[in-house]
Amino acid sequence: xxxxxxxxxxxxxxxxxxxxxxxxxxxxxxxxxxxxxxxxxxxxxxxxxxxxxxxxxxxxxxxxxxxxxxxxxxxxxxxxxxxxxxxxxxxxxxxxxxxxxxxxxxxxxxxxxxxxxxxxxxxxxxxxxxxxxxxxxxxxxxxxxxxxxxxxxxxxxxxxxxxxxxxxxxxxxxxxxxxxxxxxxxxxxxxxxxxxxxxxxxxxxxxxxxxxxxxxxxxxxxxxxxxxxxxxxxxxxxxxxxxxxxxxxxx
Length: 251
Known about the structure:
With 251 residues, this protein is mostly beta strands. The chain contains 2 helices and 19 strands.
């Protein structure tokens, strides 16, 4: 199936990157979304093809010369306070010859997965403003002078959702003034798994008790506590329910 550019996103890293980057280097950067991108020029590399013929040449011999990583434009509907556009304007300032990292994420991934990612690095110039008449939009056009061969990361699937294999467990004494702690339990599934918590007293959710610990107060006397752990990753989520405590006693 052919894909369009719809829902693709462009990001920029505010910190200059003046040395060549690997995929893992790119992945470790902090990215800021460039909002209101309307059009992006041609990306990808072009390489000079060299030819030299001698008197006895019958078929021209050719070789690769210097490769150009590209000079695409990024056209945005101007947003004065957009964080991504502000980074571009600062990077494009006269005298700023630093290189910056860029990330394009296409919307071509499977449900719950990640689309194709294109990493690039280079200088920023501009912006120009096309201006126009009263029915034309307020646009800014930046030019990127890319200096490193593009790195392309294929789409990834959502993977395997969490599956509970060992229930969470509560530790601590069920007594006023004491703190109960709930473990995560054990969940299988693709990384990265994150965990959230909800404590219950006599089967009713305790408002605000959403950490892995809870400190017992006088109003808890006689109540039985239990904790629900929710494990999440890109593919889904699963619940784990802890053991119950004995009834909470006074100090």
